[in-house]
């Protein structure tokens, strides 16, 4: 299932996609703040959105668009203002930006999807936004993936992009992606945005199902501090420009495409968790022996989200008690006599009871992770077997450090 | 409904209760570690226990006892070891301590309830425990409430006790309580234990219902870091020694008793939240305008538990965005156009949109709370109206400080 390779280019790696990112002046910092992904032909589109009752105008806009038609040609994203808690004015601004972009691109306004991230409760900097659209379109390029990825960042420390390639009938098929993560932004919301491009030819319904499942196995399984944003969204376009035969039925090719899509989403999700505010390492939790995948994911996410587990990892403390306690409160039934907990290769708990282990070596394992390089050696692995079924699932988080508190306490609205 | 007054004495304030707390040597620190509450006559008993799948032996023991008979005469609690993740040996130890205490008190072993808090995965210090029981019984006294409250603490900074008194037919009726809180303990679990004594005469079924409801409106509505312990429990005894007529039906007297019981539980719950690790203030969240009380409680608890809200309060930042975002993701449907948020007396959000407010004064309000005295001036109040119904509910938490991370990161197993 993993016969794909990593390539460069991010969202512009797949055929027929262009992208751009520019400084339009929406951010006081004069960092890039306007980002565009453009497909040269109409692409099928799928979206996954925040479940919050408090939603940004762009989220409502995309949901409405995608209910009407499951296709799009452009994704316009700004950073600087989130366009949330902005009422009717915010909605009008969203509609206007979509129309302006459509005019400039000479496409139908219904082919434009929108995303925003930044300060909530403030109106978008519309003069700058309006003035920025022509140069943004002008900057579109087949190598613009990284510029686009830059322009969606807020307090993220690094850009988050990935592209994978496989072959169908000896022709390359590619999926690219970019995301922004959990760096909070004035006035401080954890917004996760992810955009995926794909040049496979695939039916709308299959693509939508794949995107839903991939999101469930990636973005929905990361946790930095348990807060959900008003603006969270994943938008995924597939434009068929690989010129490979259309995938319209479940089967080997669909599975191969979904595996690659899931890998793209998991890469971006892990990059977001790794870049969690103040984080020194990525925590990967794998749960096996659960009644089903959903139950396993639930337990994994509860462990990855536990403040006690997170601060123990930051303290380089091989604390099986906190891991077991988090598993126990996750709402999934299991027999504690069957519980097994591993930290890296160290078996800490077996049959629900602690076992002897080399505490210094286990602490050293945690210490080393904090010194690892980005997304390579810096992953702490927690493996939990519930001994109560065949279901397995993963979740990702990061440790809880002094810097998390500093960033979120000292950043005054 | 609030015609009761605060009195001294804690769990020994109600008639016919004695208590004791001693140093038995279960803790390396030689702090008090063995606690006993004793009713001179058999009392009806109700319990509320952790919902975790990973439970201490004492929790399973109490649940079994209370399923067999809803009465008890003694509650034996040790601190130092939690007797969780200890397997069959832990169960046998629990049974032995109950039997030893029953022998010494000359009561039936089935009249003994058990609680433990401390290190998990370690066997209780049985030689010290055995040797401690005779002097513990010897120390029983009608003024022993505070000593008992001391002996259940772990890393708590203060004891948590309360006693309230009202009159039924011109005779005093009292409820006392003590609790330990969210100070974590080596190897670090947030255990909440609470014990309530009452000298009213009340039917078993009414008492059990009252205790369940009071727990739901107090202990189940506090959050320090979202972690649930293996040992959490509330045990409540009512021995009828006030010699007032038995309350056997719902009605005015039952309501009066329940109001007092709820007040006792809320006092203890707030004391636990206020003593959260590293906390500088108590956060009280009141939600109104929800579909029902449960929905209101859910939203309140989500806000009180949000790491972003908690760190904003620590940073003295009147951050309505984080409060609105937490409300939005609580799983309760509402129209964002109706959302209203107040911080103290400052209106921050109205009709889902930010309003002008005196930012410096609001920040000062938060600053003052941190300087308040214990459970008096140090409460930050967040009031949220969802505008979607008549339900209201409260939750309590504390701010998230550097010290939380320090305590939980640097405490090595």
From TrEMBL, chains A, B:
PANTHER family, per the entry: ARGININE BIOSYNTHESIS BIFUNCTIONAL PROTEIN ARGJ, ARGININE BIOSYNTHESIS BIFUNCTIONAL PROTEIN ARGJ, MITOCHONDRIAL
Cellular component GO terms, alphabetically? cytoplasm
The cellular location(s) given in this protein's UniProt record come to: Cytoplasm
EC numbers, comma separated: 2.3.1.35, 2.3.1.1
Give the record's pathway.
Amino-acid biosynthesis; L-arginine biosynthesis; L-ornithine and N-acetyl-L-glutamate from L-glutamate and N(2)-acetyl-L-ornithine (cyclic): step 1/1; Amino-acid biosynthesis; L-arginine biosynthesis; N(2)-acetyl-L-ornithine from L-glutamate: step 1/4
* InterPro entries membership: Arg_biosynth_ArgJ, ArgJ-like_dom_sf, ArgJ_beta_C
Its taxonomic placement starts with: Bacteria, Bacillati, Cyanobacteriota, Cyanophyceae, Oscillatoriophycideae
**Reactions it catalyzes:** L-glutamate + acetyl-CoA = N-acetyl-L-glutamate + CoA + H(+); N(2)-acetyl-L-ornithine + L-glutamate = N-acetyl-L-glutamate + L-ornithine
Q: Which Pfam families match?
A: ArgJ
Task: Name the family.
Answer: Belongs to the ArgJ family.
Q: Does the keyword Acyltransferase apply?
A: yes
Question: Which species expresses this protein natively?
Answer: Euhalothece natronophila Z-M001
Q: What is this protein called?
A: Arginine biosynthesis bifunctional protein ArgJ
């Amino acid at each position: 299932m993993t016969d794909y390779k990593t390539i460069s280019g991010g969202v512009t790696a797949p055929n027929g996609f262009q992208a751009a990112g520019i400084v339009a002046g929406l951010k006081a910092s004069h960092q890039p703040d306007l980002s565009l992904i453009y497909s040269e032909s109409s692409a099928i589109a799928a979206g996954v959105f925040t479940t919050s009752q408090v939603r940004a105008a762009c989220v409502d806009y995309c949901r409405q668009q995608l209910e009407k038609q499951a296709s799009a040609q452009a994704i316009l994203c700004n950073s600087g203002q989130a366009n949330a808690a902005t009422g009717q004015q915010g909605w009008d601004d969203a509609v206007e930006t979509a129309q302006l972009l459509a005019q400039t691109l000479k496409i139908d306004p219904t082919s434009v999807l929108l995303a925003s991230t930044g300060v909530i409760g403030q109106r978008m900097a519309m003069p700058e936004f309006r003035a920025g659209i022509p140069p943004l379109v002008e900057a579109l390029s087949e190598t613009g993936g990284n510029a686009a990825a830059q322009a969606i960042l807020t307090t993220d420390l690094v850009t988050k992009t990935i592209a994978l390639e496989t072959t169908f009938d000896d022709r390359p098929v590619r999926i690219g992606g970019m995301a922004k993560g959990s760096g909070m932004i004035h006035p401080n919301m954890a917004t996760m945005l992810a955009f995926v491009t794909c040049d496979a030819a695939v039916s709308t319904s299959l693509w939508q199902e794949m995107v839903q499942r991939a999101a469930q196995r990636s973005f929905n399984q990361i946790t930095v501090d348990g807060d959900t944003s008003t603006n969270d969204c994943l938008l995924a376009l597939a434009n068929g420009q690989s010129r490979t035969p259309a995938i319209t039925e479940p089967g080997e090719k669909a599975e191969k495409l979904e595996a690659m899509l899931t890998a793209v989403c998991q890469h971006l999700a892990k990059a977001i968790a790794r870049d969690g505010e103040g984080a020194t390492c990525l925590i990967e939790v794998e749960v096996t022996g659960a009644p089903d995948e959903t139950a396993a994911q639930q337990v994994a996410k509860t462990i990855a989200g536990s403040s006690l587990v997170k601060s123990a990892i930051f303290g380089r403390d091989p604390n099986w008690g906190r891991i077991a306690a988090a598993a126990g409160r996750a709402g999934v039934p299991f027999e504690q006599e069957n519980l097994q907990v591993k930290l890296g290769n160290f078996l800490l708990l077996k049959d629900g009871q602690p076992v002897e282990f080399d505490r210094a070596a286990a602490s050293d394992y945690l210490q080393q992770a904090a010194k690892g390089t980005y997304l390579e050696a810096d992953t702490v692995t927690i493996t939990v077997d519930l001994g109560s079924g065949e279901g397995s699932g993963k979740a990702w988080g990061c440790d809880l450090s002094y810097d998390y508190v500093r960033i979120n306490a000292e950043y005054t609205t």
